Amino acid sequence: MAFLGPGLGPQTLEETLKLGNSDLRFTFERNEVPEEVQAQFFTHGVTNVNKFSAFFRDEADLVQVLRDDFHVDAAASLGDRAKVAAVICSWKEVSTKAKRQAEVEAEMNTREWTKPIPTGDYVQLRNAYQQAMGHLEDKVTPAKEYLEKKLQELENGEFRAETLSEVVSKDEVDPDVLVPIFDAKGSLSVKKGSSTVALPTGPEQLRRRLSVMQNCIMMLALKHVNREEIQDVDKDVFDRYKDYLLGDYVWGLSSTDLQGQQIQTPPWSLVLSYEQAIRKRAYVIMIKERLQLGAALEQAWKCPTVKERHFITPLALYSKRSYGASAPSAPSPGLWNAKGKGKSKSPKGSSKGKGSSRKGSVSAWAKKLGSRMGITVQVEMIDIKVRPNWDLTKSKSRQVLLNKIRSGRYFAVLISPPCSTFTRATWANQKGPRPVRSYVQPRGLQRLTWSERQKAKWGNELTDFSFEVCVEVSTTDTMLLFENPEDLGAVQQGNLYGQRPASMWQWPTFFELLEKQGWETVAFYQADFGTEYLKPTRLLLKGFQTQQQTAFVQGRPSFDEQGFYEGPLTKREAVKQLIGHAGKTREFHDGAGLASPGRWDLERRTWNTDGFWKKLREGSLRLVLESCGGWQKFDLECFQMAAKGEQGCNLVRDQALQSKLVDLWITLLREEGYETEGLGDIADGQPFRLKLMQALSKRAGDPDHCFLLQGQEGFPVGVLHQLPRTPHMYEEQTAWKLEEDPYMREEIWRDNYESVQDHEEFVREHFKAECEEGLMEKMSLEEAKRRFGDKIAISSLSVLVEEAHGNKRRIIHDATHGTKINNRIKCRDKQRSPGAREKMYLPAYYKDKGNVIFSLVGDISKAHRRFLHHPSERGLLACRVLSTDDHVYINNVGTFGVASASYWWGRIAGSGLRLVHELIGPEMPVEMLIFADDLEALGPDRQGRRGVVLAFLYLAVLGFPFKWAKQRGGLKVEWIGLFADYTSMKLGHSPSRAAWVAKWTKGLAESGNATAKEMEQGLGRLCFAANALLWERPFLGPLFSWTAAIRNKRGTLKLPAMLRTILFFLGRRVEEGGDLQTPPPLKRRTTPDVVFFTDAKATDTGAWIGGFLESSEGELRNCELGLEWIPREHNQLADDLTNEDFSKFPGERRVQWVGGNTKWYVLDGLMDKAKEFFTELQKAKLENKDKRKRVEAYAQETNLSDEDFGEVQSKQFFTSLMQKNSHRYEMLVLAVEASYLIMYIAFFILTGLEKPRKGGAPPSKDFYESCVDSLWQNGLMRLENRAAEVDLRGRWPASAMKT
């Protein structure tokens, strides 16, 4: 059967059906409309839902059209009647759905939400898939929300390689995930959130995730049959993809030693990362080369570039880090991430997850103790993070291990199964994950999600296996230690009071083992072994002697009748809580990385003290003293550097002294066997002695020294070559604000901003100077293309004039907009810089020690432009002055405005600071804080002042280019906007910033008006230094909230009275000396340091404040007032007082308080100002009300109609507007003029009339009316009809018509 296509000639039924939209075809198929009838609709152009819903006027018209044009008569036969009924059902369905869907989609597009798929459609789509492909299990059926995401990507044409945690099956959806959303007006609404699952931890889980993804795409292919790009996706493609990932080419890849034993396998995290990179590449290929997804996916996993960049190179780096140049011995089997030599420093209290390859592991400590005792210890460590092949959730792995234990292979077995599903942390509050088991249901609660059930199942398997190991050990001579947290019984506080969590020590096997001979159990606090937290722990032991260990307490856990813990451990208070901790904590960061000695207090630092470092420190100090003339003159150097600037820096700038120090250090390194040539050479194009820094850092055991030699050739920008990941030095960065754009792969040129033209001469002179210095290179466009090919990007430039710094001009290289270089740079290391928290800690620390601090502040010249970039990526850092220039400028070095510039400078600077700490040594310890290019060095007492001078000297020797003219220091110092007075140990704003804060806050408070931009800019300047103002910081919350709510508002806005009161308070506080504050004291007591508890409650009818003193002395002595928040369960008694519940306190201990006799330090001023603002508001309301009455009285006297009354109001509005703000009035007039100009142009465009010739007759009345007619017919007029417009023209003044 053939059909006549529109303009295409005869077509087959199959070809004709392809003309229809997938949604319409799906509806027809669901209502069983015959394909011949469908084909007739499609042949006549009815190809989508909207056309079909509008094709018929009503049901009668539908029946008539089917009878007359389609020859389907309902009265002819029952078969035709069924066909008509099918079409009617389809038409009613799409008509209703089209209207409703249009409304929903409009709302979704407005809110930028994912459009939902109706549940019925989801079920029908799943059924259609099962009819075509067979039965589909729920665990591999894509969840509705995941299908909705991929459908939106398909409709938008922008595919995204999601992480596997987003690939959710029907079994894994959490129906309770709701997310609050605030719109621009501040209205709150709620939408369904997205469910996520844990990343796959093994091959089978990866197969299931990819199966869910495969089924999702195949379902979309059934729904959108006209989208050719996904039609080739089938099970065969994904099966081959899975086999590739999990076969010998990726996951199964391994290396063996000479004996054929496996020594290395790829880390599982690398396999997952490579898998996502393949999908990213597949989507790029699909878009650029217009291939179908299946073919693009296969091409991506076969692409050697993708494998080299995302698998081979990272794998080689792992391997290189495992072996090391000086470690020929092979690592333990499967231990890919074993660390080499070097120091491993972790702040006290920090922790790492079980199984991480580190020096603190059981294996490492056992070997270390064995070496001290002269015993060779062999440890077989079973941990999936260290040895991914040993997955103990698999019965085969468990059986192999049990066979080894039965055979008596091991002298001792140490068991520490994961306790994440048994932890009490989930019972502390309702803010985190839910508990998955309890005392009543120890193997798993009912009504868990799929992921929670899976966690409980894994926990059960590992717990059962652990006790199975214990049973097997009981028949051998093997020693055993089983460790897990103590069972502390029922919850004693919070909302879950009285409920009892589960514990491994509740397993029946535990009690059965204790009945056997040789088994015992003890409990202890880990705090007794040096931790800041208690962490009560229980051990199950066989064959161990515990009598000599006083920290161990014998006995099983005991409980009262209600299940509350009674012993054997006695209750203690911890210095640091792991659960329910009050407030947030942040570790100290000095800007030099995690391994920096400066992150530790002086008494907790460690230095190298061998002969090499002793000779180096003593020899260096001897050369310094010879150069300056002895200790007396050396002690004056710090004061000269602080007071005289560049003139006081003669010692640290002495080139002869620097050369002598370099020679000494090289000589000592040569004696140690360092034969590298040119150790003292300065790197080409850079000021640093990179080889010398690397050699000394390596000798010091610095874990991040290898990268320095890479700087000889140049560091990668991060586009063509991925930036490295250095977990030993920085935390991992997992999120980036800029998303990668798959289209930005070839050359892009972008014009500069207008500010460059205004400062053209300055830019050219600046570039000329930088070319002479070697920082830039000038070349023609042809040469640039020949050298870099398509890997060139000319970014926009902008000139920033800093008025606050004497109109200093700074050139900004915009690598984000247009060229999107920054979008492709992923800094995977999270570099942290010091701020107000660190500055508050140091004065408190040295005040507690009784030291006097002296500070020197230095500025490093062009810090971000002091290192080379790799030659292959320099073309991406191109720029030019004008678009008409025939030449470009190539940046050879780091560029301000490129994301990786701060990263590489941060690593170089951090390496220098860590090395200087080691060079100075323990005799003259210092504190060094670096924020971008600003360095502050602090030293306590005389030895510290000497160390500060040596710090700047040694940094200068290593090549750090200081701006000596900006050198400053003393006992009162400003650094990065923070002002520190070390004479009184106070911190806050500098005098200039304090003056600005007072002016800005009081100005807003008095005027009562502000724009959104003014608020955002002002708070941006205020918030950084406000971290040092402890008492004012809580008042900033309402200011930030209101600023966020008005972000998209235009014009001048009225400040609420509350905000004006807060601004007035802040301004007054700064003027009265609140700009400098004493940091809170250090907490060193092991006993509770909170002695006074308060709480408050406020309603629309009143306010209540309650507090009580908890002190054995009965009064407050040597106390500090703090603003720390504590959990409600720890402050229940004070909360009871605010609720007027006094039953917990004796009546005779109550202190009577009379409010009228109290002098308030803050409240009185706030209340007076609030009353003043309220009076002002009431006065404005009365004035507006009085003005309205006068206008209404005038209207009654003159008998004005409603229309004329509105005109009078409008005139009064414009008059007041002009008097109030002439600038706004002028802008309004300009807008009106522009509107008339647009209408005049529209007259000629729409009527097709030519412009009257010069000297011709003016347009006639007919001409004007024809223009009005044309405008009305084309739908541009907003009046009710043409008559109203003509009437409006007739009432227009004659003078205005002429004009």
UniProtKB/TrEMBL annotation:
> What residue spans carry the Low complexity bias annotation?
347-363
Please list the coiled coil stretches: 1163-1197
Task: Report keywords, A-Z.
Answer: Coiled coil, Membrane, Transmembrane, Transmembrane helix
Residue ranges, annotated region (Disordered) = 327-365
Q: Which residues cross the membrane?
A: 1227-1249
InterPro entries, alphabetized:
Hepadnavirus_pol/RT (IPR052055)
Q: Does the keyword Membrane apply?
A: yes
Official protein name in the record? C3H1-type domain-containing protein
Organism field: Cladocopium goreaui
